[in-house]
Design a protein that fits this description.
The protein has about 600 residues and is an alpha/beta fold. Helices cover about 35% and strands about 20% of the residues. Strands 14-23-22-15-16-21-17-20 form an eight-stranded mixed beta sheet, sandwiched between helices. It is globular, with a radius of gyration of 24 Å.
């Protein structure tokens, strides 16, 4: 049953009978499936308004940034809940450029059959992003900002009626969303301003191929990633490279005028003249690419701050919820916090397209079923948990059970023993509970180390992650101690905000300090992650330092591990010294 949103909206009285059937009977559960069909695909299952399980496609397919067809992620969520597609109350989906997506076919056969009776609704792109931020934030009311590379075409948007939109000649090409601004009053989400730009996927400047919207912030940032690294998806590396560069009095990259942002392509043509042909070329001309990264990062920060400043004039509010791929720029978030424009900023932890599924699910619960907000999640560990039997079987399959090169121990004291191993200088793979949802490892699928160790950064980059040596690592610190080590001491549970290390700790904690003296901090509470919180405390009891180096449990080009078997494979094929799987500790005897 595929429903066009507008016709569906006009006949909600029909669906109200269905929703009442599911909600009014106390013994029945209401399941809403949200699924994202863009790149970085994912699926989320809500049960009675709360996230029951969520999975990103790349964690199952083992292909970075995988998206499109959602057969495996849908099956994963339904199997987890022990239900079938017929048990779903509603399916809400989102992609980029489509608004009529068949339930049974999208980039291949989907999990749903042709005769499915569950209503299927397709959202436009920025609307899904906005609901993802609203649904996850604790704000009772807030402004909502969405900034990315490209969203839905103008003709597919469901949120343009009575909204301010610049007067573009939309009939002359395909114009897609690049930034959208909303107000959430606690119940309804009202679009206030939406900006669009023509998509020129094959537009070629003198040396820089544009990957997306012609004038979007995210589009230029992706293009700069392509220029420096030869890969559109290495935007995180670009942010890490920028502190090594200098600005050298370069001109603006964006025209900021009348609340609209445009890229100044004459300056792009003038300076983007040596696109990297590979890693050797990048290393041989490192200073050039670092300078370009610094320039793009600096201009991006200015553009983001300008947008927030201009949109705030339309609807002044202390609270902002923020989503879209650009929201993952932790340095820009830091500058935004310091600007004073935003008093309270909530950045959706899966702000990129992996978060679309969350927005779809919450849209179904709040907008379609008209249900009030339930308690917000106090964590984002939405993955499946693996039992002790799963761990034992994975260890047995790995062939190390009776191998003298390894010691294997299951113990309730695994946290304290892990802290001891870290204090001895060991690098630890830390696998606990359900996996994090989003791009950051937050203490369930992490590689951990003592940040005081000289050259620990080089060791992990070279021998474990097999990635570029300029890339930094994050500190994890208990919320109680964050002001002890960092200048601003902000709460930052999702590792998408940087802070400055205090001068007295800079030399002692070199493993987590970046080139410019900043750190992408993760603050940990006992509610958010009790075992990880305890581990940091036990490490401090042994060393006097309440900070751990934290990076994702994977290597370059590999999605974060999902299963115990994948964690063991990574452990056995590299230089991780200790692997902790739930309460099992596996040590390499060497």
């Amino acid at each position: 049953m595929v429903l066009d949103f507008r016709s569906f909206q006009n006949s909600l009285y029909v669906y109200s009978e269905i929703s009442t059937k599911y909600i009014s009977i106390a013994l029945m559960d209401t399941y809403i499936l949200g699924t994202g069909l863009s790149h970085d695909g994912s699926t989320v299952l809500l049960k009675n308004g709360k996230i029951l399980v969520a999975i990103e496609k790349e964690r199952l397919s083992r292909i970075k940034h995988d998206g499109g067809n959602d057969f495996d992620t849908v099956k994963h969520c339904l199997d987890f809940a022990g239900i079938s597609a017929d048990d779903l109350t509603l399916i809400v989906q989102a992609s980029n450029f489509e608004n009529h997506i068949l339930p049974n076919q999208y980039a291949g056969q989907r999990y749903f059959d042709r005769d499915i009776q569950t209503p299927v609704i397709t959202l436009s792109h920025h609307l899904a992003h906005a609901w993802s931020a609203v649904g996850m934030s604790s704000f009772t009311s807030c402004n909502v900002m969405v900034i990315d590379g490209a969203g839905s075409p103008y003709s597919h948007c469901l949120d343009i009626e009575d909204t301010t939109v610049p007067n573009y000649p939309f009939s002359n090409g395909m114009y897609c969303e690049k930034d959208s601004f909303y107000f959430f009053d606690g119940t309804s989400l009202t679009p206030l301003f939406k900006d669009f730009s023509e998509v020129k996927l094959f537009q070629q400047t003198s040396s820089l191929k544009l990957p997306t919207n012609y004038h979007s912030i995210g589009g230029l940032y992706h293009a700069a990633s392509q220029y420096c690294f030869g890969n559109l998806n290495d935007v995180g590396k670009l942010m890490g490279l920028a502190p090594y560069g200098t600005l050298n009095s370069k001109p603006p990259l964006f025209k900021l005028e009348n609340g609209i942002i445009e890229v100044l392509y004459e300056n792009v043509d003038r300076y983007f003249t040596k696109p990297s042909s590979g890693y050797d070329a990048f290393k041989n001309d490192f200073n050039h690419y670092a300078d370009m990264a610094r320039w793009v990062q600096d201009e991006t920060e200015k553009a983001i701050i300008y947008l927030f400043q201009e949109r705030s004039k339309l609807q002044p509010h202390a609270n902002f919820a923020y989503a879209g791929g650009v929201a993952l720029n932790a340095v820009a978030n830091y500058k935004l916090r310091r600007s004073g424009i935003v008093k309270n900023l909530y950045t959706q932890p899966a702000a990129g397209d992996n978060g679309l599924a969350i927005g779809c699910a919450y849209y179904g619960w709040h907008k379609i079923l008209a249900q009030p907000k339930r308690s917000i999640p106090d964590h984002i560990f939405f993955g499946r948990q693996y039992s002790d039997d799963d761990i034992r079987q994975a260890i047995l399959n790995a062939g190390i059970t009776n191998n003298a090169k390894f010691s294997i121990k299951q113990t309730p004291d695994f946290v304290a023993l892990t802290a001891t191993e870290l204090a001895r200088g060991k690098v630890v793979g830390w696998f606990q509970g359900g996996a994090e949802f989003g791009p950051r490892a937050l203490g369930h699928r992490s590689i951990l180390a003592d940040p005081r160790i000289k050259d620990i950064k080089n060791h992990i980059n070279s021998n474990i992650k097999f990635r570029e040596d300029f890339r930094p690592f994050a500190p994890s610190v208990r919320i109680d101690d964050v002001q002890k080590y960092f200048v601003h001491g902000w709460e930052s549970p999702y590792m998408i905000l940087i802070d400055e290390i205090k001068a007295e700790w800079k030399d002692q904690l070199g493993g987590i300090v970046h080139q410019d003296g900043t750190c992408r901090v993760q603050t940990v509470t006992s509610t958010f992650n009790p075992e990880f919180y305890q581990l940091i405390g036990d490490f401090e009891a042994e060393t006097g330092i309440g900070v751990l180096l934290n990076t994702s449990l994977n290597r370059k080009g590999m999605p974060i591990v999902e299963t115990p078997a994948e964690a063991l494979s990574l452990f056995l094929s590299g230089s991780i010294d200790v692997l902790v799987l739930n309460n099992f500790i596996i040590c390499k005897q060497s």
